[in-house]
Amino acid sequence: MELHSHTYASPDSRLSAATIARVNRERGIDVLAITDHNTMAGAFELAERLPFPVILGEEIKSTEGDIIGLFLTEEIPRGLSPAETAAAITEQGGLVLAPHPFDGLRRSALGRAAVDSILEQVDILEVFNGRTLRRRDNTRADEYARRHGLVRSVGSDSHLAAEIGRCWQAMRPWTGPRDFLAALREAELHAELAPAWVHLGSSLHAHAAKIERRVRRLAGG
After folding, report:
1. What is the pLDDT of residue 207?
2. So what CATH class is 2-220?
3. pTM, whole model, 2 decimals?
4. Is the pLDDT of residue 187 over 50?
5. 25-53 pLDDT, tens per residue?
6. What 3-state DSSP class applies to 96?
7. Which residues are CB-neighbours of 185 under 8 A, at least 6 positions away?
8. Mean pLDDT, the chain, integer
9. Phi-psi bin for 130: left (phi > 0), alpha (psi -120 to 50), beta?
């Protein structure tokens, strides 16, 4: 199972449904959480198209950094505080996952103070992110999760095909979000870093998307 992935609905990814289905199948991923940036459009669409179960999720930009909601039924707006974002996830019966929390090179990371402030609301802490360049930042997250007794997860954070399936968890079957959380606490975590060049690839995708939006605005004008 993969718990942190992106699709063409994220501005820094171009992963199509066909590519996601093919590469996940080749790499043995049989359940996928789709967690696009500030949208669930890709998750809703691919849940209907992919040949394996999809957990509906969203990576939401709070005022302090990214927070993932899993098992959502509707989008949560960006720009809320971490506590408000976590509360909005919980109100839907979803699970609060803090991704790449201590990545010192990523502006979207929550950081220690923000994680501390919502510790009681966090269901899952991502202790290994495949895009985190400094291993010590993943290590800090793992140590924090163990110290506070949090459920741990790993995430490929895939934006490109080369990243799919690098981080996954082997879990027993579950029924519903709460049983999922119990199963994840007992899961086997498997993780490896993506090559550093993937950051350039997603940056180029984001830049291209920005140009496309500008062209569409000009054409509409």
Report:
1. 45
2. alpha beta
3. 0.90
4. yes
5. 999 999 999 999 999 999 999 999 999 99
6. strand
7. 151, 152
8. 92
9. alpha
Are the C-beta atoms of 84 and 63 separated by less than 8 Å? Answer: no
C-alpha to C-alpha distances, 212 to 7, 8, 45, 59, 221, nearest whole angstrom:
17, 14, 22, 23, 14
Structure tokens at 215: 């062209």
65: left (phi over 0), alpha (psi -120 to 50) or beta: left
Q: Is the predicted pLDDT of residue 172 greater than 60, yes or no?
A: yes
Helix, strand, or coil (residue 218):
helix
What is the per-residue pLDDT for 206? 52
Calculate the alpha carbon distances from 21 to 6, 53, 194 in Å: 13, 11, 19
- CB contact at 8 A, 65 and 114: yes
- Measured CA distances, 60 to 42, 71, 79 (Å): 14, 14, 8
Largest CA distance in the chain: 55
Q: What are phi and psi of 170, to 5 degrees?
A: -95, 120
Q: CB under 8 Å to 92, separation ≥6 — which residues?
A: 69, 71, 72, 73, 74, 76
Query: In angstroms, what CA-CA distances link 185 with 88, 95, 124, 177?
Result: 23, 13, 9, 12
177 residue type, one letter: P
Q: Which long-range contacts (CB under 8 A, 24 or more apart) does 51-54 make?
A: 51/21, 51/25, 52/21, 52/24, 52/25
The domain limits of the chain are: 2-220
- Average pLDDT rounded to a whole number, residues 130-149: 97
What confidence score (pLDDT) does residue 130 get?
96
